DNA sequence: TATCGCTCGATACACTGTATCGCTATAAGA
DNA sequence: TCTTATAGCGATACAGTGTATCGAGCGATA
């Protein structure tokens, strides 16, 4: 039958791409794609294509796409240097906060993947271990509470920054421009007079350095924690640990410079 | 030809479903689907099917799927009762925090849609207007900073709760069970001894009421704000907004990696 | 009654994640 | 060296997704 076509077979199927391949190669390729074109660019077909492989090949190294995403998250955690254990809780938590924020700025997709699933990868665990270890309150519940609050704030703040950043990019304007010019829609809304405070915010607020705003919010949280759990207060002068406060038997909160 | 099939045409195309349809109907149908089966259940085909309509019909009322998602978010904002303007910033912000948390508990998909895009719907704007209005610091930047920090915390905390809740549901275990039994994986990890603090958290921490934990974290933030901006302090006794208390003008000591 | 316009939705397209399974290139056995 | 078993690869297929296109049918107007 198709014998006559035998001669122009497109290629000897031998070896157009016998690249060895490995989990790390796959994860790194996926990260590169995500960094360049966003999470949408990470499809099994595209990742495979970037490695000169067919889509199904990946399933030899990866169970499902979600697993790939988990691995990407853990890889980012790997690049975040954990706090050294001796630095004291406040410095430690601040370090962690900045580490995550910086990582999220490098990999804008990071924050999108953080939420869906709890991170159980080895580097994630190491990072959270180091984080917890810097907070040496005597009551473990206090530790959890403090770290949890800081992480919640960091997560929300970073998410907000990234969201805003994307919005600016998609409209091609800075946020200030956007708020003042944003289509006729926003102006019409504000012109109704139903949102006076909002209008004041838009027109009167100075657009401050995002990093500074982030730190200010972070300080709120840290101050709040200090006021309740820490005996070696730093930012809030004169306030005493409210009545029921903990006993000062903390092991060694010593600031331990660096 | 197919003339003989004419007799069992599925329907006279006249009017199997001339339901009037409207944006609200569509949005409500989508919300119902999302409440029952999660965001995955919200596809244009399924929403349309729930309204006895073809998928393309929706495009008469909606520009794109993202617009539908925006409308869903705004609809949820509508059910959140805004704070009354007179209540004072602390009560007001706490009210807002609980309002969002409760809404996110009613509609688990809500938090997933909050992030991606800034909310510009009328109810979203009304809600944020009311929120800002309760915080009457003299400096508008202080207002923004305070509200922003609280919202960031709320967002992160709620996201964490929902994530945890889903994880529990998918494994069919409570978090405590999950942490202690979670597959052999977690146990093996903890058994390595590389995560002593984490292990302590898992085994020694009491699993507290989530609402209480949420409030505790919220109080950290509110206390921190009060310490800096409010003259009518409530929770932290004795501390004055003394000039020197303000943010560390020196850009954080940054223990930076190395 | 004839025509216009509009609204509807069937069809199609490009894309997704993944199950199935035949092919092929290699390793083992005789 | 020749044959056979094994394993990995990836073409194909399937059920979805959001949306562009466009022909068909209806109601209202001339």
Automatic annotation (TrEMBL), chains A, B:
Where composition is biased (Low complexity), the residues are 238-249
Keywords for the protein's UniProt record, in alphabetical order = DNA-binding, Transcription, Transcription regulation
What organism is the protein native to? Lentzea atacamensis
Tell me which SUPFAM superfamilies the record gives. Homeodomain-like, Tetracyclin repressor-like, C-terminal domain
Q: Which domain of life is it from?
A: Bacteria
Stretches assigned to the HTH tetR-type domain? 20-80
Question: Which InterPro entries does the entry mention?
Answer: Homeodomain-like_sf, HTH-type_TetR-like_transc_reg, HTH_TetR, Repressor_TetR_C, Tet_transcr_reg_TetR-rel_C_sf
- The name under which this protein is listed is TetR family transcriptional regulator
Pfam families in the cross-refs: TetR_C_1, TetR_N
Spans annotated as Disordered: 1-21, 231-258
For this protein, the DNA-binding region equals 43-62
